[in-house]
Amino acid sequence: xxxxxxxxxxxxxxxxxxxxxxxxxxxxxxxxxxxxxxxxxxxxxxxxxxxxxxxxxxxxxxxxxxxxxxxxxxxxxxxxxxxxxxxxxxxxxxxxxxxxxxxxxxxxxxxxxxxxxxxxxxxxxxxxxxxxxxxxxxxxxxxxxxxxxxxxxxxxxxxxxxxxxxxxxxxxxxxxxxxxxxxxxxxxxxxxxxxxxxxxxxxxxxxxxxxxxxxxxxxxxxxxxxxxxxxxxxxxxxxxxxxxxxxxxxxxxxxxxxxxxxxxxxxxxxxxxxxxxxxxxxxxxxxxxxxxxxxxxxxxxxxxxxx
Length: 307
Description:
Elements: E1 6-8, H1 11-19, E2 26-29, E3 46-48, H2 56-69, E4 74-76, H3 78-84, E5 88-92, H4 102-110, E6 118-122, H5 127-140, H6 144-165, E7 173-179, E8 184-185, H7 190-196, E9 200-201, H8 215-221, E10 225-228, H9 235-245, H10 249-252, H11 255-258, E11 262-265, H12 278-289, E12 303-305
Parallel strand pairs: 1-2, 1-5, 5-6, 7-9, 7-10, 10-11
Antiparallel strand pairs: 3-4, 7-8, 11-12
Helix pairs in contact: 5-6, 6-12
């Protein structure tokens, strides 16, 4: 078999490829792929169709406007795909907003002249789906042992963490925030991470994509802790968004805000990437939920307490 030439159009899959030992075979990436830092020199093969700067409400409105006139909010560069001659393209078929869609990739692949790449499309909603996606990527590259090993390591680390939290009697109630305005609670695999880390998720639903929720449901839940983790945003961006949100009396009325239990995370690099770093995501939550028990070294880089 000739050496593969892989284009990854999902940040989590780029991380997975590198963890499997295929960084040298990564010939192209999406505009969102930025980890590990060594892959940032790879050619970019996609872009957003709208301005990514702005508030959460402004971005939500741009997404809605874009989707009124298109299938996806991203575009793929067929000319770049042709130039790179990939043997494999990895994309997703879950969310038209989260990353480049399967439909976009199929349309672009039809324009390829000299290459007929295998398209691996993932649709993770649970931790098991994430594991299966890693296995699918590894299998497509004839690297099943590497995939099995990576998944086994991830399972072991998360199981070990859960063993340390399962008997904790005082588990905080938690709301994890996927988007600030409109308000969305995190679903899919994150409620499972909350459980593993020793918390009780009040609004997120496992295996269900992020729902838009009336803000009154947040006030009714009134959790012990609130964790901010919008998709695509780092700590500083999330902090600036919360500076504005906290001007609202609704937010100010929340127990977690009043008691200083509001936390800002790097939602871009951790919770919203269904790949190897879901392990670190669970560790971040454990540090937030039970600081007296856990210190994995993620504070300041992966999360901060809002103040």
